[in-house]
Write a structure and sequence with these properties.
The complex is a heterodimer. By secondary structure, chain A is mainly α. Helix content of chain A is 76%, strand content 0%. Chain A has 13 helices and no strands. The longest helix of chain A is centred in the middle third of the chain and has 30 residues. Classes of the chains: A mainly alpha, B mainly alpha.
Chain lengths: 289, 292
């Protein structure tokens, strides 16, 4: 199949070639949905400096998937279950009782290592072929069904709706937690809800890109957007736009080259970063203690 | 248990590596650089795969790539410490590259080599040869010695960088040096026990020691001891329960220790609440109370 796919100088022809197979159309649909969701939620994640938590959630998706494989349940259930559970654990860990940031990050790191350890245990217990492990970790865009796309669509619509509802107070709480708290914004509840949303986004993305590469979609577009503009509206739009560009670019590269989706994403992200490279950094965001 | 050579090797390599991870981990937690440590372990993964894809000795890739990236991150973090987003971005690059090297490696070699990635990620402490174990132990011991040598100024610089800089402590050089020691430990530990185990051994003992003791020296010792203890208990456990992989067992023990430490410090904080003859908190509250 890859031998047949050749990039020509005719964009229309290329597009037809790209959408020739149903699996590719499904991949493009799913990628688009996931990119919008990851772009928006990732923007808040970067703003709230919860990159480590996001990474931990993405890693936790892996034991979820492994457990689902072991129990012969649908993979999606494993992804969403593990990420939801992980988000709750992280919310409990980063509670108000733990005053220091260092204690919190140690706890997050421990959660992550433990999750990976469990995943390894499940894979060992499964003792099937380990080839599947690679696609759990690094993703595959070939096996996406129409049903999966529909599920993704509903989940991401729900997540974006919740984000829209809590967007304003969340922004306030993220930029200045103490003032927001004093003004009566329920910062703690918002934090928990946001972690759950992040878990959803990570689980949805992990289905497409694999547990380890969620980051490319969650962090890079958002970080780039925040370097270009500090204003929330344009920043969010830019983040979503970049995530879309990265996903489409990545899928195209993956389709026309023998390399996996991860590499395609990587190249797309790299292009997008080098475009920004010489732009002055607009947001030297201080550490919100 | 020690009748088996692989168990002897595992203990021989595991003990110093766990000690080194515990000591480095304490500083990593103290300096709030757990995320950076996590990134290093993934860098090690990519480095190993790059070397495997290029057909060079895996060890070479591990050390060169890890130390180079650690140096880069240390330099980046000169003003503020390497910050969340910087690390996150480095991460995404590194993992993307890792995926590329993995695919080159797998498609380049006949047969299924996907297990190589699994071994790098999850380690194979029970599959070490005697030579590997000795090398791992030697490098880990060297790293421990280097760390102990710079421990005193490094503690100072970690706890209060401003004052330390004012007193002429080379804060930046120390930070860089520490990062490089951490990189060496990460590379060696990835070789011996896997990237996954490495993170658990960095974060859990350090975090537990921080919760248990405010005294940095005692904390440092405690962190090393918890690391070694988790390693021993985990190895024994996985020997007794064959279905349990060694990495999972070690991480499980370390996590349990961390939970116990968290519960302990929570109880202690509760018992120190108003009225009791606590150390700082209690006394301050008492004096405030008498004033009003």
């Amino acid at each position: 199949m890859t031998e047949l796919a050749r990039l020509s100088w005719n964009p229309v022809g290329d597009f037809e070639q790209l959408t020739e197979f149903p699996f590719m159309v499904n991949a493009l649909h799913a990628g688009t949905i996931v990119a919008v969701m990851a772009g928006a939620i990732g923007w808040f994640m970067v703003l709230r400096r919860q990159t480590f938590a996001g990474h931990t959630l993405s890693v936790i998706a892996f034991p979820g998937a492994a457990a689902a494989t072991l129990a012969a349940l649908p993979l999606a259930l494993g992804y969403f279950g593990a990420c939801g559970l992980g988000a709750l654990v992280l919310a409990a860990v980063s509670g108000p009782g733990r005053a220091t940031r260092s204690g919190e990050s140690a706890a997050i790191g421990t959660v992550q290592a433990f999750g990976l350890g469990l995943g390894f245990l499940f894979v060992n217990l499964y003792s099937g072929q380990l080839a599947g492990l690679e696609s759990l970790l690094f993703g595959t865009f070939l096996g996406i069904t129409t049903g999966q796309v529909t599920t993704l669509l509903w989940i991401s619509l729900a997540a974006l709706f919740v984000l829209m509802v809590i967007g304003r107070p969340l922004l306030f709480a993220s930029v200045d937690a103490e003032v927001a708290h004093a003004a009566g914004v329920p910062t703690r509840a918002l934090g928990v809800i946001f972690l759950l949303l992040l878990g959803l986004a990570v689980a949805a993305t992990a289905e497409i890109t694999g547990a380890l590469l969620v980051f490319a979609l969650l962090v890079m577009p958002a970080a780039t957007a925040q370097q270009i503009t500090a204003r929330p509206g344009p920043g969010l739009a830019l983040s979503v736009g970049l995530a879309l560009a990265v996903t489409w670019g990545g899928l195209t590269i993956a389709y026309f080259s023998p390399y996996p989706l991860g590499f395609g994403l990587y190249v797309a992200v790299r292009l997008c970063l080098s475009a920004v490279r010489h732009h002055p950094i607009a947001v030297p965001v201080g550490e919100p203690v | 248990m020690f009748a088996h050579e692989f168990m002897r090797n595992a203990f021989l390599a595991g003990t110093p590596v766990a000690l080194a991870c515990g000591l480095v981990g304490y500083f990593v937690v103290l300096r709030s650089q757990v995320f950076a440590g996590d990134a290093l372990s993934h860098v090690a993964f990519t480095g190993a795969l790059a070397a495997a894809a290029a057909g060079v000795d895996v060890r070479l890739g591990l050390f060169v790539v890890t130390i180079a990236v650690a140096g880069g991150m240390g330099l980046l973090g000169e003003r503020a410490r390497p910050d969340d987003v910087v690390i996150g971005s480095v991460f995404a690059w590194i993992l993307g590259l890792g995926a590329l090297f993995l695919s080159i490696f797998i498609s380049g070699s006949s047969g299924s080599n996907g297990t190589a990635a699994v071994r790098v990620l999850f380690g194979s402490i029970l599959g070490l040869s005697l030579a590997d174990a000795c090398l791992a132990a030697a490098i880990a011991v060297l790293a421990c010695l280097a760390l102990v040598a710079i421990a005193r100024p490094l503690l100072f610089a970690s706890v209060d960088p401003e004052v330390a800089r004012g007193l002429g402590v080379p804060v930046r050089a120390l930070g860089l040096g520490f990062f490089i020691v951490a990189a060496v430990v990460a590379a060696e530990a990835t070789q011996a026990v896997g990237a996954l185990l490495l993170l658990g051994l960095l974060a859990a003992p350090g975090g537990a020691a921080r919760l248990l003791s405010d005294n940095p020296w005692r904390g440092l010792g405690l962190s090393g001891a918890i690391g070694v203890g988790s390693m021993w208990a985990g190895l024994t456990l996985s020997y007794q329960v064959p279905a349990l992989p060694a990495s999972t067992a070690v991480i499980g023990v370390a996590t349990a220790t961390f939970l116990l430490a968290a519960a302990f410090s929570w109880l202690r904080r509760r018992s120190r609440q108003p009225g009791s003859q606590g150390i700082d908190g209690g006394r301050v509250e008492l004096s405030l109370g008498s004033r009003s």
